[in-house]
Amino acid sequence: MAELSLRKLRKVYKGSADAVLHDIDLDVRDGEFMVFVGPSGCGKSTTLRLIAGLEEISSGDILIDGQSVAGAPAAERGIAMVFQSYALYPHMTVAENMAFSLKMAGESQQTIQSKVGKVAETLQLSSLLDRKPKTLSGGQRQRVASGRAIVRTPKIFLFDEPLSNLDASLRVQMRLELSKLHKDLGTTMIYVTHDQVEAMTLGSRIAVFNAGRVEQIGTPLSLFHHPENQFVAGFLGSPKMNFIDCEPIARNAGGSTLRCGNGVVSVNFHVTQKCVLGVRPEDFAISTESVGFCVRIDVVEQLGDAVIAYATPVDTHTTIVIKLAPPASQLRINAMLWVHPRPGSAHVFTEAGAALTQLTDLSTERDADYAR
Amino acid sequence: MSSLSASSPKPVAPKRRFDTRRLMPYLFISPFFILFGIFGLFPLLFSVVLSLHSWDPAAGFEAMRWVGFDNYTFALTRDDWLHASLYNTLWIALVAGLPQHLIALPLAYFLHTCFGRWRNLVVGLYFLPFITSTVAIALVFSALFSKDFGVVNSILAAFKSVPLVGAIMPEQSVDWANNPQYTKWMISFVVFWRFVGWNTVLYLAALQTVPRDLLEAAEIDGASLWRRFRYIVLPLLKPMMFFAVTLTIIGNLQLFEEPFILTGGTGGTDQAGKTAAMHMYWVAFREGDFGTASAIAWLLFIVIAAVTGLNNRLLGQREND
Ligand SMILES: Nc1ncnc2c1ncn2[C@@H]1O[C@H](COP(=O)(O)OP(=O)(O)O)[C@@H](O)[C@H]1O
Ligand SMILES: [Mg+2]
After folding, report:
1. Which end of chain B has fewer CB within 10 Å, C or N?
2. How many domains does chain B have?
């Protein structure tokens, strides 16, 4: 049970001029499943390693339950970490791997055995206790790594892309197991991933990282529906949100009318400058009359539960992605048709990337009921 | 006509006379086999033959006389110098060899974990003795260990005035090279000093293969620097330890140059620093008894094989590991 706060956390690696992390401010609440998500190289692992104490901070502070741990050795911070590689000790059996931290802490043989036995049981590892890591499957190794973290009963769990070495179906299964684990233990967890699906499904809250900064923190749905900037909007959701440059051409009582390339779109708020329209693929609808964008369909992908079309608005060289529920029989290769964003679904960003849509009450609502 | 000739071409007898293309590869790899045959395989086999003969090389091949295992029985039962030199060899191998690894292992770990930019320089310094000529090293150490003007004795003398430690310091200058009590210590020290760097480099290389994650996981698990070494690094270095110790065993049991030069080729007073290889050299080139020398060589080989086998039992990888 613990809260974690990062205060103006900054990291400059020795020998490099640029900071990898720029003044990160972030609070993880007690019992929360916090996910750090972002593209590769944005500093997620670095943040985690700073929290773990494997790397020294350049400036700022790290607080666990209000106490600064910035100078404390890794072992004394009360954290446990699961590595992407699992980092299982190859010369030790599963039981020895799980017992190692207890042994280092000088626990009695009896305590060690009962603790390891109990954790092994909950993770279904009891039959594997005498095996060496190299004889285990990927999923089993992942579980041993989690088990090794659990036996320490840490205040905070840190996971660094723990599922990225698994194949897709196993990943889904282990994702569920981790979710369940969090529910059972109720311990604060911080989970790093570059996979937005993992982030959306696991996180109580998500912190979206980009180039050493936190772009936005919030519940999965608030981030999805109310991204504060173009980066977050583009990062979450699959396929990616479409971005189309546009400018206001008319203004009326209910909002503005925007010219976007060859199309015209109305939004229900006022826009006064050049901007970027963001529409999620699933937020497009096929128009019955000539409104929105006139597009030519280039490629159609049938996913069974959805149809994805890649289309080119006429007279442009851009591509927009449209995702509709099947059968969507109008989506045929080389078909010309009109599509428009569903009312109220369009996002508008300034040219610098900040969201122009006003945050509605929805986001604060979501933020409040984040946990459990 | 043309269609006929195309469908049934006249069978051509394969030219097998001198296909250079087939021969070329063998030609290219032949230098190794030729050199190995002349300088490796032939002497090896010839020494087996020699060890079963009595032979004065000055008298030509006709002088070779079959004696069966006489050379072996002589070496084993009556050659007291062989027994003494074998004892010396094992003594030096142990005293020079064991500390090499006991120091090189932690040293490599220390260099690996605590040195950043300076690591390669330090490694280079440690490695330097290994690539320096043995003769030069032996000469330098002869000077260092010299009775009246050597640095070692000066240092010992300086320590004499220090309380506590002073009591165990020798009263007079130690005659390292000529007092049989110290000869083996001196040789062992030089050999140790020379190969510590080599072993450190071996262990450093092996340390590169230990994933950093493992050490970090152990750090989080609460293992101190020393315990990370003891519980994680050491077990993972076992294959390299086996390799390095094997090299040490083979090298130390064949020790020749260092004792030869440090003792001026004599083996020192009472031959206290004479190794088996030196004895073998002596028997062959001073006494001209190539038969017995060959027998000694093969006996030494058996000893080395036995010790290496023992090492394999201790450090070698077992399948179920
Ligand atoms: N030990 C290091 N020394 C110097 N630069 C590093 C080091 N580790 C990571 N970096 C750099 O820091 C940035 C962030 O890395 P990281 O935190 O691993 O990103 P990710 O979000 O993919 O986990 C990257 O540009 C990486 O090159
Ligand atoms: Mg990473």
Report:
1. N
2. 1
Q: What is the mean pLDDT of residues B64-83?
A: 89
- Range of weakest confidence among A47-56, B148-157, B225-234, B287-296: B148-157
Q: Identify the H or E element spanning A312.
A: strand A307-313
Torsion from C-alpha of A311, A313, A318, A322, nearest 10 degrees: -40
DSSP track, B182-208:
HHHHHHHHHHHHHHHHHHHHHHHHHHH
Domain with A21, as residue range(s), is 4-234
Does any domain span residue B120?
yes
Q: Do A83 and B217 touch (CB under 8 A)?
A: yes
pLDDT reading at B305 higher than 90: yes
The answer to pTM > 0.95 is no
Chain A residues 31-90 within an 8 A CB cutoff of chain B: 52-54, 73-75, 79-81, 83, 85, 87, 89-90
A354 and A244, same structural domain? yes
Contact A85 B220 (CB under 8 A): no
Angle ∠(B4,B5,B8) on CA atoms, nearest 5: 85
**Residue A370 domain flag:** no
Instruction: Tell me the ipTM for this assembly.
Output: 0.83
Best residue in A13, A56, A84, A101 for a mutation probing chain B (most B CBs within 10 Å): A101
Task: Locate the chain A residue with the closest alpha carbon to B217.
Answer: A87
pLDDT tens digits, one per residue of A231-285: 999 999 889 999 998 888 888 877 788 888 778 888 877 888 888 999 999 999 9
Task: Note whether residue B196 is domain-resident.
Answer: yes
* Closest ligand (CA of A208): 1
Asked if the structure places residue B55 within a domain, the reply is: no
Ligand 1 pocket, residue A281 CB under 6 Å: no
Give B24's contacts (C-beta < 8 A, 6+ positions apart). none
CATH code (residue A144): 3.40.50.300
| Residue B111 placed within a domain | yes
Chain A residues with CB under 8 Å of B230 CB are none
